[in-house]
Design a protein that fits this description.
By secondary structure, the chain is of the alpha/beta class. It has a single domain, classed as TIM Barrel (Alpha-Beta Barrel), CATH 3.20.20.70. The protein has twelve helices and nine strands.
Length: about 270
Amino acid sequence: MNSSMSSSVAFAKAKAADRAALIGYLPAGFPSVKGAIEAVKVMVDGGCDMIEIGLPYTDPLMDGATVQDAVHRALVGGVHVADVFRTVEAVAATGVPVLVMTYWNPVDRYGVDAFARDLKGAGGAGLITPDLTPEEAGSWLAAADHHDLDKVFLVALSSTDERIATITSICRGFVYAASLMGVTGTRGAVDTGAARLVERTRAHTTLPVGLGLGVGTGSQAAEVAAFADGVIVGSAFIRRLLDAPSHKAGLDELRKLTVELASGVRRPT
């Protein structure tokens, strides 16, 4: 069993180095269970401070085409929740905090307390729950507190200040700011509302704010790192694996991108 580390540790280390944290996302089971574990280890070696492992789900409504493609491949490959925990365990062994990002239905089906127990047992830091509202989160909040897990909820551009206050009040670890309306995916330019969303969120919490908005280059990472505590990258990592002619070539591309993004969050502004 791995000992779990709160995501706050990664943010504190980055802050001590006067920079933002780099947070990488990859679905478990993509391109295979073993392949995903190899990939996230490359991401950690390349400079990711924290990892989000996606739990593949049959109806990923909030995900963009790139993430949906990867999730579909993982599901076709027969990935199970046990494989998610196995992946978490492998990441936790590297010494960086690892969270699971999941829609609520699989957790509910598994059993909320059992999921929290098994996530903790695998060395997981907590859960990111994009479709779980505070009003429906009672069972998860209780299980997370019981098993000492981070509770990461999302705020968006459409969130009112009152809603941001409600959401941040139940978060632990960090707050996930989703700057673009609609689905996830890489973008050509940093959305202009992103900095304002982070500013609005900070008015209600002292927790770090991680921003996910489709960052795909070192310069974009530097731009976001100038105003957010964490830069969350998913689609760009997945795309390198999807586009590569072989798994080995994909890992090489993944390493290059991670190093570029890691240097971006360290770039003086």
